[in-house]
């Protein structure tokens, strides 16, 4: 009797393929940079390279206007730091940003608390929100044109003040050396407070009512509730907004340039307008680069504190 054996159709056992772990790990680590590469290229081209070029210009003389520039060391920085116009611009910038930031916080908090109160109805709050947010909706060019007309000697501001008996004759607010800086600061305050109002209003709406109820049970009056409940709860928002406003206001250029151009007699000259004039009016690109680097360093100090505050939060 012949026995037949069925052929073994079982597939041969294959040894498991060991993955290339180093290559896989490297690919996994580099893949996020592949997605970020377009943004990184844009940042390098539009930010890093120009900053490096400006820093290099600040250490050379006769840049851009002449083909062969020479190394000047710190001479451009010495020229800028000893220039009376630069020192005046630094002083004006300090006054401009300090007064603007303080006024933004006070007005923003006052209007935010008014819009957060329970004494006003929903329709009334909506109307006030539209009115208070209007300055933030206008562009800088529109704001400058509006206020140049309002502050003209024959403008609405002088007419109202004369009607109330506060002025005997029209004042040219933007051409008077004693009033121009304060007029420009007032316009900047008017155009910037809505952003603070919105941010602080969001912070107020995030404060639990239980804290106010507990303070009322303990016998705290409205002023004590504001000082011991509202302000401590808003402290992170207030500090962050103040540092941000210092950075933004220190870089304000368009509004001042379109209102006064840094005049009269340089009383509204700030660091941004001084740098612009050095580069495009006097064609001193080397000293303009040095001034720009100084402004960059001052801004980086403020940015450092802002980032540090955000990390603490």
Automatic annotation (TrEMBL):
Transmembrane segments: 33-59, 94-115, 127-150, 180-202, 285-307
Keywords: Cell membrane, Membrane, Transmembrane, Transmembrane helix, Transport
Coiled coil feature spans: none
First and last residue of the signal peptide: none
Record lineage: Bacteria, Bacillati, Actinomycetota, Actinomycetes, Micromonosporales
Protein name: Sugar ABC transporter permease
Family membership noted in the UniProt record: Belongs to the binding-protein-dependent transport system permease family.
Subcellular location: Cell membrane
Biased composition (Low complexity): 1-17
Gene3D superfamilies (alphabetical): MetI-like
GO BP terms in the entry: transmembrane transport
Record flagged with keyword Cell membrane: yes
Main subcellular localisation: membrane
Highest taxon of the lineage: Bacteria
The keyword Transmembrane is annotated on this UniProt entry: yes
Region (Disordered): 1-23
Domain ABC transmembrane type-1: 90-306
Species of the source: Spirilliplanes yamanashiensis
Record-linked PROSITE patterns: ABC_TM1 (PS50928)
Topology of the protein relative to the lipid bilayer: Multi-pass membrane protein
CDD domains reported in the protein's UniProt record: TM_PBP2 (cd06261)
GO terms for cellular component: plasma membrane
